[in-house]
Write a structure and sequence with these properties.
Elements (H helix, E strand, L loop, with lengths): L1 E6 L29 E6 L2 E5 L5 H7 L7 E3 L5 H4 L5 H8 L3 E5 L1 H10 L16 E5 L4 E3 L2 E10 L2 E8 L2 E4 L7 H4 L7 E5 L12 H11 L3 E5 L7 H7 L4 E3 L5 E3 L1
Parallel strand pairs: 3-4, 4-5, 5-6, 10-11, 11-12, 12-13
Antiparallel strand pairs: 1-2, 1-14, 2-3, 7-8, 8-9, 9-10
């Protein structure tokens, strides 16, 4: 299984608009963060988790040539607004692409992208994707995918486990029933916004505490705000916990 971190930033991205902080003005490319998303490649199939706002640019930068399915964690703008760019894969592959999410996520996507599902723009260029509501484990391309419920403030988001890999982005708490599904991991990707508290996201300190509880072999932190400088923060973390960065590629 090959994993590409398409984006590792929070909803604002880094650099943020009209910000002159040391991270937003940094010349270190690892401090440049588009909105969070990953691409999982195995058995000649590509599964995207979240269609970030910069999805088109992420695909060009990482030379993504095929897309077979999309898993959505929740329906916030920075995680779904790239769905319109699925249309180029429709054109190249001559097929519709399945998109999966919870009932709430699917409903929101259907409302926001209503033009996809009506005939008013039949002659225009629009994406072709089917919306599929998650109901327990999912089997895609001979891979078992386990949805994992997590809290995102007062809302819920969905993480995903595939074999020894799990991806949990926007998260403020993980219920005990989900903790059990995250044991025995080789690689965990976990959202960690910054050091100062936030009502809807783990801080880096909280993320480290969860990692110590779960004991995966390796952890990468994602969904990172402009408060976090890459080199300095990595030097402060345990060796088995690293910050992810845009374009990072790992193999499991």
């Amino acid at each position: 299984m090959n994993i590409i971190f398409m984006g590792t930033g929070t909803s604002h991205g880094v650099p943020m608009i009209a910000c002159d902080c040391k991270v937003c003005t940094s010349d270190n490319p690892k401090n440049y963060r588009t909105r969070s998303s990953i691409l999982i490649s195995e058995n000649s199939h590509n599964i995207l988790i979240d269609a970030a706002t910069e999805f088109r640019l992420q695909c060009i930068r990482n030379n993504v040539r095929r897309l077979d399915a999309v898993l959505l964690t929740h329906p916030h703008a920075d995680h779904i607004f790239g769905l319109d760019d699925v249309r180029q894969f429709n054109w190249v592959q001559k097929e519709e692409i399945p998109v999966y999410g919870t009932e709430d996520t699917v409903k929101t996507v259907r409302n926001i992208f209503s033009y996809v599902f009506n005939d008013k723009h039949a002659l225009g260029s629009k994406p072709r994707f089917s919306l599929n509501t998650l109901s327990g484990k999912l089997n895609l391309f001979n891979q078992e995918i386990i949805p994992i419920d997590v809290s995102h403030g007062s809302e819920m988001a969905t993480g995903y486990r595939i074999g020894g890999f799990a991806y949990i982005t926007d998260v403020s708490a993980i219920p005990e029933s989900s903790i059990k599904k995250l044991k025995g991991l080789d690689v965990l990707v976990l959202g960690a916004l910054r050091y100062t508290p936030h009502p809807k996201h783990f801080t880096i300190t909280q993320a480290v505490e969860i990692v110590q509880k779960l004991q995966p072999k390796q952890t990468f932190l994602t969904h990172i705000a402009h408060d976090i400088e890459y080199e300095k923060t990595n030097s402060e973390l345990p060796n088995e916990i690293r910050l992810a960065y845009d374009g990072l590629e790992i193999e499991i």
